[in-house]
Design goal:
The protein is α+β, with helices and mostly antiparallel strands. Helices cover 32% and strands 17% of the residues. Strands 1-3-2 form a three-stranded mixed β-sheet. Strands 5-4-6 form a three-stranded antiparallel β-sheet, with no helix packed on it. It is elongated, with a radius of gyration of 20 Å. The two termini are 29 Å apart. This is SprT family protein. InterPro entries: SprT-like_domain, SprT_Zn_ribbon.
Length: 145
C-alpha cells in the first residue's frame, strides 16, 4: 500500500463513518515507533505508522478512525484532545481505538528467580544491576529472541 492508496482508504472511512469528506493527505511515517498515527494541527495531514500494515486490518482501521476523530473535531472547533468528552463520545460512536496495541515484539524475556515474575524488554538488561520490582529478587535471561 502506498500513500495514495492510504489516502483513498482514509477518505472512504471518513465518508462511511463520519459522513464528512477528508480533504487533506495521509502519509506513512516510518519514524513513528510507539504510536499508530498522528494528526497535525497546523496543516491537518495525518501520519500513519507503516508497521500497522503487518497487523490485523481492524487495528489499522481503528487507528485511522482515531486520527479522523481528531481531524473532524478540530475542524469543527470542538474538543479534539484525548481528555475531551467530544472526542471520547465520537471515538466510541465510530468504533475507533483508544490505544494502539504493541507494534513491535520485545526482544528479551527476563524472569525473577524468586517469584517467577516475567519482564519483557526491547533492550538488554544488566542482571547484576537490576532486580525484580515485585520482590527484589535476582533476574535471569529466559529467552533472547
Amino acid at each position: 500500500m502506498n500513500n495514495q492508496e492510504l489516502t483513498r482508504l482514509v477518505q472512504q472511512i471518513s465518508l462511511e463513518f463520519f459522513k464528512r469528506p477528508f480533504l487533506h493527505h495521509v502519509l506513512f511515517n516510518k519514524r513513528l515507533k510507539t504510536t499508530g498515527g498522528r494528526y497535525h494541527l497546523n496543516d491537518h495531514h495525518i501520519d500513519i505508522n507503516p508497521l500497522l500494515l503487518n497487523v490485523d486490518k481492524a487495528i489499522l482501521y481503528g487507528v485511522i478512525k482515531h486520527e479522523l476523530c481528531h481531524y473532524h473535531l478540530h475542524l469543527e472547533g470542538k474538543g479534539y484532545r484525548h481528555a475531551d468528552q467530544d472526542f471520547k463520545k465520537l471515538l466510541q460512536a465510530v468504533g475507533g481505538l483508544r490505544y494502539t496495541p504493541r507494534l513491535q515484539q520485545p526482544k528479551f524475556h527476563y524472569q525473577c528467580i524468586v517469584c517467577q515474575q516475567d519482564y519483557f524488554r526491547m533492550r538488554r538488561l544488566d542482571v547484576r544491576k537490576y532486580a525484580c520490582g515485585k520482590c527484589a529478587g535476582r533476574l535471569k535471561l529466559v529467552k533472547d529472541y
